[in-house]
Amino acid sequence: MWLMTRVTALTIALTCAWPAAAQPAQPGMPAGPGEMSPAQVQQLFDAMLVMQAQEALSLSEQQYGQFLTRLKLLQDTRRRNQQERFRLIGELQRLTHPGRPRASASDGELKERLGALHELEARSAVEVRRAYTAIDEVLDPQQQARFRVFEEQIERRKLELIGRARQNRPNRPQNPNRQAPPRRPPG
Asked: Could you read off the pLDDT of 68-79 as tens digits, one per residue?
């Protein structure tokens, strides 16, 4: 039974992560062959968190099913709020871009967008706190503490891997159609 639960959870995690990883990058997030967008990397780490959680937290079979459901809610809540935040920040960037005439972005319009951002941040904090409370209802205090540490370790691993990937990525030419200037003969 334990193995069946584990296999089911692994299947669910990979089903959620892989379709998005197989999709082309989002506009504004160029990804060449063999590269993944930040959203795809995040989804793979979410799947890794799900797969390793039972062992890291010493979850019972009963806890594991409830934990997975609540963890997915936490991840979805974070992702949804992060996407909305990026959208609002993008609007602010568009409205305040130095090349855009100042007169076209009124102070009222900017205040409205800033108010929406503040509202989102407050709502997001409440939703994430609720999602953590739901997870904590399934876990004992030791597991709650281990879960917070475990999440932080996964996040650090993600940042380390992204940093290494950036360091190991070969330099790409800025414009592949641009020809190199002719070489001067040594003189």
From this structure: 999 999 999 999
125: domain range?
42-51+62-99+106-168
Residue 137 lies in a domain: yes
For residues 161 and 124, what is the distance between their CA atoms, to the nearest angstrom?
27
pTM here is 0.66
Tell me, yes or no, whether 118 lies in a domain. Answer: yes
Q: What is the pLDDT of residues 3-24, one digit of tens each?
A: 444 444 444 444 444 344 433 3
Is-contact 53 63, C-beta < 8 A? Answer: no
Query: What Rg value do the Cα atoms of the chain yield, rounded?
Result: 22
Residue 178 sits at the vertex; the CA angle it makes with 176 and 181, to the nearest 5 degrees, is 130
| 80: in domain | yes
Phi-psi region of 34 (alpha: psi -120 to 50; beta: other; left: phi over 0): left
Instruction: Give the DSSP letter string of 115-145.
Output: HHHHHHHHHHHHHHHHHHHHHHHHS-HHHHH
Please, what is the angle between helix 2-22 and helix 61-96, to 10°?
20
**CB neighbours of 120 closer than 8 A, spacing ≥ 6?**
81, 84, 85, 88
Asked if 67 and 59 count as a contact pair (C-beta separation under 8 A), the reply is yes
